């Protein structure tokens, strides 16, 4: 490798088979045969092309000095110094400090394939690219919001207005009021759900069973009606119905509403038709649990929760790892505890599955004290399991936390970047418009 | 700088046609930014016509080009910019690719300054770098804001409003700044002890064994502990009141969070006393008791008083305040988890017999204890479903709590670091101030020192030109004086009092650092100058009829005649000669630097500078260059001046001005000083203009650039060279530097007053200018060139200072 001649900076003239290039002020003398290793590249073409043919030369480079046989390129010299490495080492590393996006543009100019980029720099590049796509997505959303009404029919305009009212709390005062109202209704319905289960506040119905207080039920109904109206309005105003129906947030909304109606219809059926009363009540009970889904509706109003879901989605692998560690630990330690506690006559560990519970509670350092080891060996085992639990939880949790923190911080940065991008686009479009008007005036 | 040398020495700036020609001739342009040469096509620069580089394309005159860049050379189409080269690469790439990226290692603030300079809006920054840029910039802005607030706080503590501010300030320092004195430290420790004591007493009070029972059978405070409590409260109250009285701004003091805590620690005690005393007889004792109980609990707030004495606690409070967003997130996560898991466990455990999960709110407790992994075990699930939910709850709790905490921790650590750094910064600032007060600052700021040495050089220039003028008055040719150092040597001992004076001055100066020495040398030099200058003063005024001096004069005249004879061939007009006499000031200054008489001082001066600050070397080189340039033609020049000196017009135009010299004020001299004088240089023969340009390359040295009055220039130069770090000390020092001459003058001619010499200097110049103004009418066309010459100098000056 070290026998290959290095590029020669600042040498006066060039011999046969060499070409001198001037990259934005930095003069380099290069060997033609080295450049020919990548025949597709711009420099190799330059070597091949006859210097007399001015058209070809000028199409390849920006300027040509026939007296010194020097080709001039109006490009970044720093990036070129990195790119020239490809002819010698078959790989490129991005110099620290050069923006990778910018560097890729340079690569394109020199007609060198991106694949020669080394792995270490590739990951960096992909990171940046991801960021860019995210920003562009955000920009798209912002632009959509700012889009002037192009729909001509009244129905369309109404639809758009409604959409903004329901989905963009920042767009107008009314939209903000609606957002706050829906937030409050979620809280109220959650509180009502909880309070409704307190026995003191329940009333007995004709059959001697405890049912919810009628006032609470009234509030619940009102909230449900509000949720339904909200959901329907959103659905009606959404530009893309299918997309809307299957998006995560709206599925939650739907899940929050539907139990109410199912219960309503079931009780109605149960009283009117010949369905078995017990079955209906069981179904109702099951559906009541689904009411919990309404709490997730809060995620719509909190960016922090969205970040959490995002981070969890991103770190599914780590979550799996966490669960695996935990389950392995649980199996091992519950089995150990079970066998060790067998000797004790009044053992609390009756079976291995039963001691699972103990293992979980110990490993997560909760320790209720409903089951605890009584023999010395068992106690030692408990101590070890506790330590292992701490480690098993702490290790995989770190990447998850990291993901979350990175996401959380990035969210803020991206927001400003997207805003800036929009401004830049406006500026550029404005400049173009000005240029056009100037051109028109000239013609 | 070196490349541009040729342009300056060829004197005349290139014509517009030349510029256009050379511009059209080349497709490329070389941009030298801080030493790094870039080559770029003109058409690339055309892409952004409104930026600095874009404007360069349209500039076809010398002035407009020099407005844009710091220097240029047409031969190889090179433009020099005295800016950071690192930032420029990314800026030039913006022209090439249309995408503005930022070098990663660049500081955002300095990059934004560079962008400002090149006339590019920061909005063009690409979004991949934008995020980083804005983040950094915001951070910096925040930091700057905080710093400004801090300094404002410091300034805010001024005690000028009312009476006995001195004592109040002392009291304030004693109470608020434990590090200010030993007594304050002791006071702080006592205060901490009282806080600890009172909290211990408070908790001991609740021990049943220590409690007494009153007549109603209810337990009350132990009397001993009550005494302790009373003493503590008395101390706290006194402290608070003293603080309040001594505080510079009462409302601000009242609002301060630490003081609110103090107040809350004191108030409950008094309220309890008030309530119990006023309600002793009244029947609603039970209610009062309850209120009193609440206030007793509030006493625990006094533990927060410790925050005053611990930066760690303060930064904790600050962190919590700053990261309320994340805290909110944490609480939200917890609340959601609690709600979900408690309802799940409720539905799972509902049907179990004598279950403790009676309702969802009742199972909140279980969910909280499980999620925070406390696990008391008073409630736990029993069914299988409930246990599964419980297990999930544990894991979810660990996750949910762990997630937002790192952000808060990050905030805390950042703030803590910042706090530490600030403490250090404050200490450094204090040390700096102390050093300034002691006058040992010179070694700390070489720039400052250099600025001062340059000033002194200027003074010398000023003095020398005065001197030459004086010599003109006396018909003594300056050439004689300059050409014959022996004469000068004879001259200095002729006034023994003054030498004593000057030597005394020297000894009075504390000699510390090498810079200091150089300054001292300069002062010494200056003192000698003053002596020389004061000597002709005597002669002209006939005040000090020192026989020796008269003898000297005779000698001078003799030499004058001798030179006259040699220079009789010179046939230049008198105006021209007078102009060349201005040049002679310059040559004079350089002469001093080189002259054998002052060799020791000049040498030491130079070496001192080099040793202290290598970055100054280029300037020094130029100085020397200039001096050499002027030295060679000196003889011819001196001939001219000598010719002038015996010309009959000399005294004629000099004397009337001298008669009303005292009336001329500085302002006038300054106004007329720069403009017409520059005319004078334009009239010169090309040979002469070489010296002026050469010398004008050290802008502060050439008399053209100086307002004639020394003091005004002094201030200006100090402000320019020593920006933020200026303090009285420097002024004083400079003042002392100039003072000896004044003192000498006063001694010599009490009638003359303080500023006579300077006034005269300005006056003479004015006279010259006026005369020149008339004579140079036909040559007005050349005035532009001079203006051009001068502009870059000013521009350079402002750049370097900006």
TrEMBL record, chain B:
Transmembrane annotation, as ranges: 182-204, 224-245, 327-347, 359-376, 388-412
Keywords, comma-separated and alphabetical: Cell membrane, Cell projection, Coiled coil, Exocytosis, Ion channel, Ion transport, Isopeptide bond, Membrane, Phosphoprotein, Postsynaptic cell membrane, Potassium, Potassium channel, Potassium transport, Synapse, Synaptosome, Transmembrane, Transmembrane helix, Transport, Ubl conjugation, Voltage-gated channel
An annotated GO cellular component: perikaryon
Coiled-coil segments: 130-157
Residue spans of biased composition, Low complexity class: 678-690
Intracellular or extracellular location(s): Cell membrane, Sarcolemma; Cell projection, Axon; Cell projection, Dendrite; Lateral cell membrane
UniProt xrefs under PANTHER family: POTASSIUM VOLTAGE-GATED CHANNEL SUBFAMILY B MEMBER 1, VOLTAGE-GATED POTASSIUM CHANNEL
Protein name according to UniProt: Potassium voltage-gated channel subfamily B member 1
Organism classification: Eukaryota, Metazoa, Chordata, Craniata, Vertebrata
């Amino acid at each position: 490798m070290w026998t290959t001649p290095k590029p020669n900076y600042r040498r006066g003239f060039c011999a046969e088979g060499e070409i001198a290039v001037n990259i934005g002020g930095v003069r380099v003398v290069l060997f033609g045969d080295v450049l020919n290793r990548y025949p597709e590249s711009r420099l190799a073409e330059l070597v091949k092309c006859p210097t007399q043919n001015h058209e070809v030369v000028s199409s390849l480079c920006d300027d040509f000095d026939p007296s010194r046989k020097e080709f001039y390129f109006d490009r970044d010299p720093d990036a070129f110094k990195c790119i020239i490495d490809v002819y010698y080492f078959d790989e490129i590393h991005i110099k620290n400090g050069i923006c990778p996006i910018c560097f890729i543009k340079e690569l394109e100019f020199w007609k060198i394939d991106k694949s020669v980029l080394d792995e270490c720099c590739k990951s960096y590049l992909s990171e940046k690219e991801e960021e860019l796509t995210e920003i562009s997505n955000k920009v798209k959303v912002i632009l959509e919001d700012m889009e002037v009404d192009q729909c001509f029919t009244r129905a369309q305009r109404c639809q758009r207005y409604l959409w903004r009212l329901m989905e963009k709390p920042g767009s107008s005062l009314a939209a903000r009021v609606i957002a706050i109202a829906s937030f409050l209704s979620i809280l109220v319905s959650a509180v009502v759900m909880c309070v409704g289960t307190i026995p003191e506040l329940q009333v007995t119905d004709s059959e001697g069973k405890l049912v919810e207080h009628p006032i609470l039920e009234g509030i619940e109904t009102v909230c449900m009606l509000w949720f339904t109206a909200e959901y329907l309005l959103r659905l009606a105003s959404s530009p893309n119905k299918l997309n809307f129906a299957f998006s995560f947030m709206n599925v939650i909304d739907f899940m929050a509403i539907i139990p109410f109606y199912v219960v309503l219809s079931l009780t109605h059926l149960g009283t009117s038709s010949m369905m078995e009363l017990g079955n209906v009540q069981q179904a109702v009970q099951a559906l009541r649990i689904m009411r919990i889904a309404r709490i997730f509706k809060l995620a719509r109003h909190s960016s922090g929760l969205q970040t959490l879901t995002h981070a969890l989605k991103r770190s599914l692998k780590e979550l799996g790892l966490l669960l695996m560690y935990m389950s392995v630990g649980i199996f091992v330690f519950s089995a150990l505890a079970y066998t060790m506690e067998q000797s004790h006559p009044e053992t609390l560990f009756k079976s291995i599955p039963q001691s699972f519970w103990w293992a979980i509670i110990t490993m997560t350092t909760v320790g209720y004290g409903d089951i605890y080891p009584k023999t010395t060996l068992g106690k030692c085992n408990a101590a070890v399991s506790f330590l292992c639990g701490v480690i098993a939880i702490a290790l995989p949790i770190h990447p998850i936390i990291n993901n979350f923190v990175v996401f959380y911080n990035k969210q803020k940065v991206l927001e400003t970047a997207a805003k800036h991008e929009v401004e830049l686009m406006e500026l550029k479009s404005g400049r173009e418009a000005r240029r056009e008007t100037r051109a028109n005036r000239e013609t | 700088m070196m490349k541009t040398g040729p342009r300056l020495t060829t004197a005349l700036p290139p014509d517009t046609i030349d510029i256009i020609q050379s511009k059209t001739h080349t497709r490329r342009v070389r941009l030298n930014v801080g030493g790094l040469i870039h080559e770029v096509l003109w058409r690339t620069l055309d892409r952004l016509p409104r930026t600095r580089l874009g404007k360069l394309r349209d500039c076809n005159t010398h002035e407009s080009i020099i407005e844009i860049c710091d220097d240029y050379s047409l031969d190889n189409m090179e433009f020099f910019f005295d800016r950071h080269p690192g930032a420029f690469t990314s800026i030039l790439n913006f022209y090439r690719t249309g995408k503005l990226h930022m070098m990663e290692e660049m500081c955002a603030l300095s990059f934004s300054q560079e962008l400002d300079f090149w006339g590019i809006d920061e909005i063009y920054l690409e979004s991949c770098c934008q995020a980083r840029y804005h983040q950094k910039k915001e951070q910096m802005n925040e930091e700057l804001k905080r710093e400004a607030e801090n300094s404002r706080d410091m300034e805010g503590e001024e005690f000028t409003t009312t009476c006995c501010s001195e004592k109040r300030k002392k009291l304030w320092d004693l109470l608020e700044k434990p590090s200010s004195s030993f007594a304050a430290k002791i006071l702080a420790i006592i205060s901490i002890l009282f806080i600890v004591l009172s909290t211990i007493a408070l908790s001991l009070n609740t021990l049943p064994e220590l409690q007494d029972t009153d007549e109603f059978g209810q337990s009350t405070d132990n009397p001993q502990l009550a005494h302790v409590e009373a003493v503590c409260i008395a101390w706290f109250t006194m402290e608070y009141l003293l603080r309040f009285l001594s505080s510079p701004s009462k409302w601000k003091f009242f609002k301060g969070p630490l003081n609110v805590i103090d107040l809350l620690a004191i108030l409950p005690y008094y309220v309890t006393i008030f309530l119990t005393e006023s309600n002793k007889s009244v029947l609603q004792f039970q209610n009062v008791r309850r209120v009193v109980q609440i206030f007793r609990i509030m006493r625990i707030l006094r533990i927060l008083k410790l925050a005053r004495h611990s930066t760690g606690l303060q930064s904790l409070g600050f962190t919590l305040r700053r990261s309320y967003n994340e805290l909110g997130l944490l609480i939200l996560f917890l609340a959601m988890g609690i709600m979900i898991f408690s309802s799940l466990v409720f539905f799972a455990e509902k049907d179990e017999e004598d279950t403790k999960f009676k309702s969802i709110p009742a199972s909140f407790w279980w969910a909280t204890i499980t999620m925070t992994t406390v696990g008391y075990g008073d409630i736990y699930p029993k069914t299988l479903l409930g246990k599964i939910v419980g297990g999930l709850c544990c894991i979810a709790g660990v996750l949910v709590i762990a997630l937002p905490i790192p952000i808060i921790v990050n905030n805390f650590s950042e703030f803590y670091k910042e706090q530490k750094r600030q403490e250090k910064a404050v200490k450094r600032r204090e040390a700096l101030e102390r050093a300034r007060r002691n006058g040992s600052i010179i070694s700390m700021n070489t720039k400052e020192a250099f600025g001062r040495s340059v000033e002194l050089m200027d003074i010398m220039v000023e003095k020398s030109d005065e001197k030459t003028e004086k010599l003109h008055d006396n018909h003594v040719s300056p050439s004689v004086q300059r050409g014959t150092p022996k004469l000068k040597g004879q001259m200095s001992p002729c006034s023994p009092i003054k030498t004593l004076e000057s030597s005394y001055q020297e000894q009075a100066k504390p000699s510390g650092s090498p810079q200091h020495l150089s300054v001292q040398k300069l002062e010494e030099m200056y003192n000698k100058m003053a002596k020389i200058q004061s000597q002709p003063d005597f002669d002209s005024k006939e005040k000090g009829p020192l026989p020796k001096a008269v003898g000297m004069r005779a000698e001078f005249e003799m030499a004058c005649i001798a030179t006259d004879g040699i220079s009789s061939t010179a046939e230049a007009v008198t105006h021209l000669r007078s102009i060349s006499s201005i040049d002679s000031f310059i040559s004079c200054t350089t002469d001093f630097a080189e002259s054998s008489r002052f060799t020791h001082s000049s040498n030491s001066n130079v070496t001192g500078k080099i040793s202290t600050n290598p970055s100054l070397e280029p300037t020094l080189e130029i100085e020397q260059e200039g001096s050499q340039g002027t030295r060679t033609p000196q003889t011819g020049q001196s001939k001219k001046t000598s010719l002038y000196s015996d010309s009959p017009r000399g005294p004629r135009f000099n004397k009337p001005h001298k008669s009303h010299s005292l009336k001329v004020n500085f302002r006038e001299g300054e106004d007329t000083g720069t403009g017409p004088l520059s005319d004078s240089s334009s009239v010169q023969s090309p040979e002469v203009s070489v010296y002026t340009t050469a010398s004008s390359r050290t802008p502060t040295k050439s008399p053209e650039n100086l307002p004639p009055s020394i003091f005004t220039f002094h201030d200006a130069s100090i402000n320019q060279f020593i920006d933020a770090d200026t303090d009285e000390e420097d002024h004083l020092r400079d003042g002392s530097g100039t003072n000896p001459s004044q003192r000498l003058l006063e001694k010599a001619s009490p009638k003359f007053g303080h500023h006579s010499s300077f006034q005269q200097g300005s006056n003479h110049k004015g006279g010259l200018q006026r005369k020149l103004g008339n004579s140079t009418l036909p040559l007005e066309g050349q005035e532009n060139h001079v203006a051009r010459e001068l502009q870059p100098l000013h521009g350079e000056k402002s750049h370097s200072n900006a």
